[in-house]
Amino acid sequence: MQSMIRRKYNLTYAKLSAIGFFAIIFIGAVLLSLPISSKSGEVTPFINALFTATSATGVTGLVVYDTYSYFSVFGQSVILVLIKIGGLGFMIIATMFLLILKKKIGIRERNFLKESVNTIHIGGVVRLAKHILVGTLLLEGIGAIILAIKFSSEMGVKEGIFNGIFHSVSAFNNAGFDLMGRYEEYSSLIRYSDDALVNITIMTLIVIGGIGFLVWEDIYKNKAKFKKYHLHSKIVLLATMVLIFSAAIGFYVLERNNLFADMGIKETILASLFQAITPRTAGFNTIDTAELSEGSKLLTMILMFIGGSSGSTAGGIKTTTFIITILSVVSLVRHSNDLNIFGRRLEDSILKRAYSIITIYITSAFIGMLFISFIQPELALSNTAFEVLSAMGTVGLSTGITRQLNALSRLMVIILMFCGRLGSLAVLMAVAESKNNISTKKPLEKIVIG
Fold first, then answer.
1. Which pTM does this prediction carry?
2. What is the dihedral of CA 280, 346, 423, 8, to 10 degrees?
3. 294 vs 299: CA distance, rounded Å
4. What is the spatial distance between Cα 148 and Cα 146, in angstroms, rounded to a whole number?
């Protein structure tokens, strides 16, 4: 029966993923548009509800309403559930229900699950899904307890616990939604810019959520024995460390006479590190993004473009893709035919996939920029580019123009967030994938490059 349904509807993983996320977003949008979801009891315009649902499910964080000020506890809870589903992926959620109901997980489901978590082997994929579920709940729980203790002293126990859970889940899933509108609308975590406990907790959750499920599994199995890690984990951890510390130094240099001018040493260090981590791809901010220098905005856009790691809650082209392109340049300069790292050679086909991802990503971003610039020419191009890359990278940082976007521009951002969460290559494959490829080679001829 399953094979017959599969033949009839041609449901590859890419198509199933696109349909699944669309269904979740649509249901979320309907719920958020209901009067019960807003504090005023009014019906939320569907385009804005759709924008919020896409941003939450796509773990982006761009908002047209301040989450605390506009949405009721019911609406905030819907957003929280959407973040959780979007961060884990609906295939892992589906597997959780199958395990609870003690249903058999077949080969087809295991294959879909393998693609969902971006693992290489189908063997042990169900065990990996269990570890992901348990690990996620454990880490989010620890983060929620720490933040709840902090927030309870300011907001009261009930509000403190809910805020602790909300911000822990949002940080771990790299979503960037916050409930700090109680102090000032759209202020994110600026209030806590010098609070080491909040900063370190949020940054740790973001980084752990952004390195990917496969790296977790490697660390769980091999502990601190780095030499035993898979090549994927080694590349991810190296790239993550280099990007965090080099970006932190970059932000310090660029902002030391601007936003950091009146800060103490502790606050400057925290702000530099936080600003280096949040664009990949969390969306929280402890300083006013709109007031960043032009150099810092450019550095932020570069980090949003790179994003987190494969098989994680983060977006962007991914750290492994970025490293592969760097290796290809090094290989070309050295006149080498191989891509080598950590004493291993990478397969040739991976470079083609990496460049395909980057090309589709850049093309989509330029289309988004051109579309919004045509629809709303009054918006500065730098702000439009920042918004588009933030949507594509599922980041959620903004220079403040999100609320200025009209319906058509918001629709474009919705599409970009959707593509960013699924992966632009996955979306293109879902639309253009064909099962009837004829494996014939055309005559070979050379062209000039460069």
1. 0.88
2. -160
3. 9
4. 6
* E strand spans, 77-129: none
* Residue 422 identity (one-letter amino acid): L
Q: Give the DSSP H or E segment for 345.
A: strand 344-345
- For 317-376, what is each residue's pLDDT tens digit? 999 899 999 999 888 888 888 888 888 888 878 888 888 889 989 999 999 999 999 999
Q: For the range 116-123, what are the long-range contacts, defined as Cβ-Cβ under 8 Å and sequence gap of 24 or more?
A: 116/13, 116/17, 116/89, 116/91, 116/92, 117/89, 117/91, 117/92, 117/213, 117/214, 117/311, 118/212, 118/213, 118/214, 118/310, 118/311, 119/213, 119/214, 119/311
pLDDT at 27 over 80: yes
Identify any residues that bridge with 324 across adjacent strands, giving them in sequence order. Answer: none
Long-range contacts of 252-259 (CB under 8 A, 24+ apart): 254/293, 254/295, 254/296, 254/299, 255/287, 255/292, 255/293, 255/296, 258/291, 258/292, 258/293, 258/296, 259/287, 259/288, 259/291, 259/292, 259/293
